[in-house]
Amino acid sequence: MSFSCAAVAAVFVVILSGSHAVTGARVGGMILRQSSSSVQMFTEAPSFRNGAECAAGADGRVDIAMTLDANYLRGTMAAVLSILQHTACPESVAFHFLTAEDDDHGLAAALRASFPFLDLRMYRFDPSRVRGRISRSVRQELDQPLNYARVYLADTLPADVRRVTYLDSDVIVVDDIRTLTSVDLAGHVVAAPEYCHANFSNYFTDAFWTNPALNGTFRGRRPCYFNTGVMVMDVDKWRAGGYTHRVEEWMAVQKQRRIYHLGSLPPFLLVFAGHIRAVDHRWNQHGLGGDNVEGRCRGLHPGPISLLHWSGKGKPWLRLDARRPCSVDYLWAPYDLYRHSSPVIEEW
Ligand SMILES: *[C@@H]1O[C@H](CO)[C@@H](O)[C@H](O)[C@H]1NC(C)=O
Ligand SMILES: *[C@@H]1O[C@H](CO)[C@@H](O)[C@H](O)[C@H]1NC(C)=O
């Protein structure tokens, strides 16, 4: 009791003596009234300004697409902050968020509160569009409809978005994102780091490899694994080639006979593996979340790093909160906008 009173008194001393007295008191009052709202859970990021070399207007615009969901909001915030902090042209980055929630206002409001100057565009992704096509994978989170939103980017984004870079919500960018987004696609629809040493056969089941109607799919190409959490897409070519439908067709096959284990990744591999533009591995240090079952710690791969990706079961904010972080999670922590002090106030 006496501890709580002292804590509250301390909070008010800070509020009254600080230069942001009015804001602090208002925010404090809102926390006391509605502690569950996302808006008050995050601090405001610094504002970032374009350097002199940045092209003005639509020419210089960099389009980033991500999904937005309550469970990953903290990751999304950190990803956005990391992108803005490391690019020379932060005001040129447009963020396109796809959300499946009926009420996305809380999530969008939280982003706007933390990034008041962000070029932020919201799109509703209708989960029913994909729900009937999803089959169960090894990890339940991978079966969420929003996980498939990347298949529908070309149908969702406005026509003036000709190229988009899709990013998962568990990434941190530590380099200028424009180096990735301006990659020469050389006529390809998708660019991403690819991994040709990975044993490609393991992503598909025997039902796939032994079916003569299916197992010739990769004939004539050298298929390599790539991770769909970081992809540059030529949206025009995607639309013209009807790639949404091509990916959906493989999801329909999976629904009938189990030809792969994971969620949204294998249908991408079936359509694109061997046909993508390879990007330097530094743009997707994936697997930092550990394996899909236990989420054990994994270290960094050797070589330079521009993007860190906590793919796999473990997420850095959960492990940090549980006080059982992996060492790579300390690389994520500096981008965390979560307001750790709020529980003290909520206790009162
Ligand atoms: C890849 O994995 C399959 C099945 O697990 C195995 O039969 C095959 O020998 C492996 N190939 C290589 C090149 O390691
Ligand atoms: C495809 O399946 C047939 C029948 O099981 C098999 O004979 C053939 O070797 C398979 N082809 C490939 C490329 O795996």
TrEMBL record:
Keywords: Glycoprotein, Glycosyltransferase, Membrane, Signal, Signal-anchor, Transferase, Transmembrane, Transmembrane helix. Pfam families: Glyco_transf_8. It is an enzyme of class 2 (transferase). Its EC number is 2.4.1.-. Pathway: Glycan metabolism; pectin biosynthesis. It comes from the Eukaryota. Gene3D superfamilies: Spore Coat Polysaccharide Biosynthesis Protein SpsA, Chain A. One of its GO terms (molecular function) is glycosyltransferase activity. Belongs to the glycosyltransferase 8 family. This is Hexosyltransferase.
